[in-house]
Amino acid sequence: MSSTGNQGAGAKAAKAVVSELESMLSESPSSDRVCLKLAHILHVRRNEVALLRLEKGSLRFIFPPELRSAGVLPLTGSAVAARTAATRTPLLSNAFMRVKHVSLFEAVKLGVEVEDQSQEQMPIQKIISVPVATPGGNVIGVVQVSRKGLDSSLAGADFTGEDLKQLEQAAEILARMPFMQEGAEI
């Protein structure tokens, strides 16, 4: 297929993300339901999606639920999510284990489907991280999608520019979800 054809397929896939998430807006879905849909769309496991909301100058996990009580990430910190929010810059890394990052949250036991227990506490090998911002440009959170595994070759396919575009479009819709507003019930 030509590169033009690939771009067309990517644009269609990105539109599918937008339409699937957009249709959920009117239902006022839970953050859990939206993140599970995002995992399905981007072909990752439930425990490979993270959604953080900006609260009082720090980022707090709202998904996965097991990390809601794990504390906050200060925007001044070195965590990838903090850098994504502070710089308003997306990140795509298919060599994430070589990047210095806070791995504290990777050690938290997450609820995983029975068939995925082997992936339970695997390190993040690949990641895309995108700021969630209002149409006015105010960052209100960060959404991250990762691929976990013992090593990069076992973590699945590399993320592509199209994956990043899909997550950026998803972030635009996430910004309009009620649960992303500071102080909203999760």
Blueprint (SSEs and pairs):
Blueprint: H1 3-25, H2 31-41, E1 49-55, E2 58-63, E3 72-74, H3 80-87, E4 91-93, E5 124-133, E6 139-148, H4 161-174
Antiparallel strand pairs: 1-2, 1-6, 2-3, 4-5, 5-6
In short:
This protein is of the alpha+beta class. The protein has four helices and six strands; from the N terminus they run H-H-E-E-E-H-E-E-E-H.
Count of all domains: 1
The radius of gyration is 16 Å
Let me know the largest β-sheet. 6 strands, antiparallel
**Overall form:** globular
What oligomeric arrangement do these chains adopt? single chain
CATH superfamily: GAF domain
Distance between the termini: 44 Å
User: Could you say which structural class the secondary elements and strand pairing correspond to?
Assistant: alpha+beta
Structure description:
The chain has 4 helices and 6 strands, in the order ααβββαβββα. It is of the alpha+beta class. The chain has one domain: GAF domain (Beta-Lactamase, 2-Layer Sandwich), CATH 3.30.450. β2 (58-63) and β3 form a beta hairpin. α1 (3-25) packs antiparallel against α2 (31-41) and α1 runs parallel beside α4 (161-174). The longest helix has 23 residues, at 3-25. It is globular, with a radius of gyration of 16 Å.
Features:
4 helices; 186 residues; six-stranded antiparallel β-sheet; alpha+beta; Beta-Lactamase; globular; disordered N terminus
